[in-house]
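hey so i finally got around to running the thing on that chain from the lab meeting. sorry it took forever, my laptop kept dying and i had to restart like 3 times. anyway pasting the input first so we r on the same page abt which one it is
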Amino acid sequence: MRRHSDPCAVGLLTHRAQIAGQGTSCARRVRRPAAPGAIALLATALLAVAFGAIVLAAETAGPPAADVRRPKKLIAVGWDLFFDTAWLRAHRADMEQRPFDGIVINVVGRREDKKAVELRLAFSREPWKAEWFAGALEDLKACRFTRLTDNFLMLWANPGDVDWFDDAGWREVVEHWRIAARLAKASGARGIVFDPEPYHEPYAAFTYGAQSGRDAHPFEAYHAKARQRGREVMKAVAGEYPDITILSFFLGSICGSATGHADPRPLLAARGYGLLPALLDGWLDAAPPGVTMVDGHESSYLYNSDIQFLEAGNLIRGTCQELVSPENRAAYRAQVQAGFGIYLDAYVNPPASPWYVDGKGGPRVDRLRANVAAAARVADRYVWIYGEKCRWWPTPNKGVTGKTWPEALPGCEDALRWGRSPEEAARFRLEELRKAGRLANLLAGGDFAPAAGEPEPKEGRPPSGWATWQDDKSKGALAWDREAGAAARGSARLAGMADGCFLQKVKVEPGRRFAVEAVRRLKGRGDAVLVVRWQTPEGKWIHEEKDVHVPCTEPRGAWGRMLGVVQVPDGAGNLVILLLARGQPTPDDAAWFDDVRLYALD
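ok and heres what got predicted. didnt touch it at all, straight out
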């Protein structure tokens, strides 16, 4: 491992200022992989996901670029959502108050005789008419959601009584999918949620042994026929909605144990969902590039560690390719995403329940936060939150208790916000603290103005409360600036800096969460970034891989705000703020920092 001197490198290529207490003596130590091959990259990915710091955006040196990250989305699923679109229309305002990006919608149509037709029961031979769902579509169009941008219409693999060789029956199934896709597109929904689980007799839409023609056709024939039906379904769906997302509660991951063989079909023949990979293969045969399929991996309900989510992500994105035809594997890699299910009841059930997630010695809501965060880091986009016993909003479903989830599991909304987006959760919490008058900056001199009763700092000297460090080869100036400032006069200025920083440390305890804010302005060449690093209580640097770089994407010349969120790792006793600048070739090249604040979030 060779050393690296870049002070603002991200990830494992991190600058390490060495200070004794708050002194000015520093040395740099940075590790860099000598040859980042597949193993090194995998190790880096594991560290970044399982133990990595939260990086809120990529640092840019020029004008703000488009956010290239894929924001993670939480989708609400549960018994409290078993109402029709008329109920949804009347209560949509309640839906917008919860920390979700979308919900699953149960669409109910009406025949001419006013009898209900449930869209979710799509795997049936009953003929449908699109006009039966006109009233439901009107309700959906009237629901002008602002926060709930990723809604899905529900389809089940039920009643599932149509044999895969039943041409007449499958014409109706395909038409049902077509109607669903048309409704999703017209209503502005993101797509379709598909639940492959059988809830009606014969309880086995994807089980070979439950098919009526199993004595006439071997499994290989059923496998080929299921792939054909998948093509038919996808042609109908994509014809209506060519950029649809199909979020399935599970796809190939349910049959992951059948991988590792030259031909998985003999093993799939005995699986309860042995025909599901064939349906997916058919989808891939016909899906245009804009279609996205999500393996929602329902098996993650009881996951309680980062590594479980990492391994499942590898299973979905990598190993499960073996379950589709070789000619479809490139499309699989491009269009099949990894998602995860979180089962809320497992965090309130008693220990004797088979559906129980242990708190690992702490509050179980903390495990919910950690597991949602792990799921969101590994998922490509979607994490669905499933609950049965309690509710998020009013519901006519009498199977749900009157208790809300925040009542049953205090802190769960904060846990979901934190898991989905630490930045959003921090903003929400900071606003709560402001309203309560409890917002206190833990840094000394963060506004770079003299404290009441103290003399004004001398211009050209370090700001009060801050130490400085500069590389031996750097000849820049680190000083308090009397005139420049974001909201008021006074700021920290770094000019002509090849590599240097202001720094301040605060005593902290492992597990605590903090938000760090600042504003920054650049002039000329060079770059500047705020970094959070960690020391032991004795002042020894640790957890180099958990440095947090807080970027600013405002153009040069403008004061730009910065916000980062951190959680203190095990073994840390000091949180150290570094205001870093580098690559400034002349004294006219400068960076200013102002209004630097550190807030406890819990």
